[in-house]
Amino acid sequence: MKLLYFAWIRAKIGMAEETVTLPPEVGDVGQLLDWLETRGANFAAALKERGVVKVAVNQEYVGKDHKLGTGDEVALFPPVTGG
Amino acid sequence: MKLLYFAWIRAKIGMAEETVTLPPEVGDVGQLLDWLETRGANFAAALKERGVVKVAVNQEYVGKDHKLGTGDEVALFPPVTGG
Amino acid sequence: MITIKVQREDFDIGVELAGLSAGNTQIGGVASFTGLVRDIAAPGSAGSRMTLEHYPGMTEKQLHAIATQATERWPLDACLIIHRYGELAPGDRIVLVATASAHREAALSACAFLIDWLKTKAPFWKLEDDGATQRWVEAKDSDDAAAAKWADTK
Amino acid sequence: MITIKVQREDFDIGVELAGLSAGNTQIGGVASFTGLVRDIAAPGSAGSRMTLEHYPGMTEKQLHAIATQATERWPLDACLIIHRYGELAPGDRIVLVATASAHREAALSACAFLIDWLKTKAPFWKLEDDGATQRWVEAKDSDDAAAAKWADTK
After folding, report:
1. Contact C58 B56 (CB under 8 A)
2. Is the ipTM of this complex over 0.90?
3. With contacts defined as CB-CB under 8 Å, which chain C residues touch D13?
């Protein structure tokens, strides 16, 4: 699965994208965030404020209970500030 | 007093402007319109729909009871349609 | 800060909008509305035309008064109205209203206010020629209603 | 009818707006909103800068979805969104939203809707540098409120 990070979530994690193989217990977006937080202090810091983390799967906004597939492109980012 | 006519009021009267000396009984805008109507069929036709005739005195919108002075510039025109 | 132009000539929107915000980097947004001549050609005619008559002197005065109201009502950094008169063809620009502000809501609302208000107050009259007959455009009740709504709300 | 451009380069508003209505003489009005970079320089600093990050692919998709919503909601003849990314300086244009319609109310409302909606949905992030320190711009509650009001009313 391809993971993309943007803005201060990217800056805190220290990486713009990576390809991961999900452990079997990760089935939805909420579980993905739980798992990512265990991967290090940088992830924990980036995802600490769980309420502000926005998630897009295959470039569409999804909720925390969205089910994940192995070929998905999953992006994590803070609230948008363009315009 | 200088009188100006615009749009279809100008077209019906057949004249864009004129200088007139008001008879003594004409003291306000309503009385001016009453008097103008008596000046010929063209004026009567132009001012027939009294409700739609807009009046500006010295380039400001005024009501029918606005008092007139001899040096005033008075304009009669239909509702505006610019923009 | 308020710029009013009443002119026969066309205008360049890009140049006008750039001029509106030039030198003021506190401006966060510029809203604009451009009115265009619509084609009302009768079937088989040579094409439609429009002539815009206005009241020189009063036009500038009214547009200035409308723009002043907008600047009193919203925190605008700049405000521009350009209105053409004379003969125009379908697709031609008639009017440009533009507002600049630190806040986008102010710029957008003031722009809508200005065009609504201008439509009922600025002394312009449209004579349409559909290629067959000429007629003076009638004022629309919807324009009065659009202007009236600004009397109550901000 | 819907045009979306996500680009590093600046744009010419006059050219873009003329292109929007070109060849369609049923269009009576074009509304636009241009977002500009505001200067936030710290006192004594060398001047402020801004960097706009975005999510290539999703950006275009979201802007297209927003524009489609606008055309479903209002009778638009054309709709344009240009959004820049990369490094920008104070006074630079960031975004242009423009709508064309036979009816001015439709053009004005759709333009306001698009910029409000874009602010909460399009995946762009601003990194501000006031000449002393860098910080990611925080999303504003007022932007959420501005977008939310379109959910209820037309």
Report:
1. yes
2. yes
3. 13-14, 17-18
